[in-house]
What does this fold into?
Amino acid sequence: MTVIEATKPVETPSLTAVAVRGRVLRQLRRNPLGLIGAALLLIVVFIGVFAPLLAPYAPAEVHFATPFQRPGTEGFLLGTDDLGRDIFSRVLYGTRASLEVGALSVLCAVVIGVPLGLLSGYWRVLDMVLSRLSDVLLAFPFLILAVGLTAINGGGLVDAAIALGVAQVPIMMRVVRAETLRLKETDFVLAATTMHVPSWRILGEHILPNALAPIIVQATVIMPTAVIGEAILSFLGLGIKPPAPSLGIMLSDAQQYLLRTPWPGIFPGVALAIICLGFNLFGDALRDALDPKTSR
It folds into this structure.
């Protein structure tokens, strides 16, 4: 009598996940605006990471003998401000500060908003409380809420980032809640519920991985919003405190000399525009690439 031994099949990566990654990459490569946005983001991130190596001067170093130097004169690539500080160095460090605030704001919105959205979408009892709480927060304009929270905490980079992140929590929570409500009615979640799989496993292993696409897209929306929010807070004196470099502080300092010497205000404004343009273009392309219904 011949006994045939059953062999355990070799585990291979999920073909579905590989196919999805391939489709997303193909969609991104076919989107020229998305590629432009990705290139801008790479440049901005490179500048932010290597700002101490790229800057010829310290951001707070003053040269009282050379105020309001024109761009390209006496070793100052973008000129100097009213105190003779190198604008190029301050823009580099200001870009770094903007990215730090944006990243911390996204982290805060994700860490708080995603769990609240999962709980709100999965349990009706919690939804009644959490949805009303988000409605109250959404009743306040984003900037007013951020200004109030920053003023309470006293200002600074971390305080500004937390305030901007908390102000974005209701929006992130609503996005995750809507996705949870949709996924809760799918066959694989209903099957797991029927098999009495614990709720925390359903949320962590079935709903959250399938809700990552809208979470990532929403993060690309929060990032430029936080960068602009930090510039506004610093412009009003509620964000990063001088002499620490900030694009908003540079705009605030340059406004009184704008008619006499416009370049101290032009270059930080251009830096803000490039950062936000890069995130918006790449975010739009990423949203289209992650949407399976989109075909170009």
The chain is about 70% helix and 0% strand. The two ends are 60 Å apart (CA to CA).
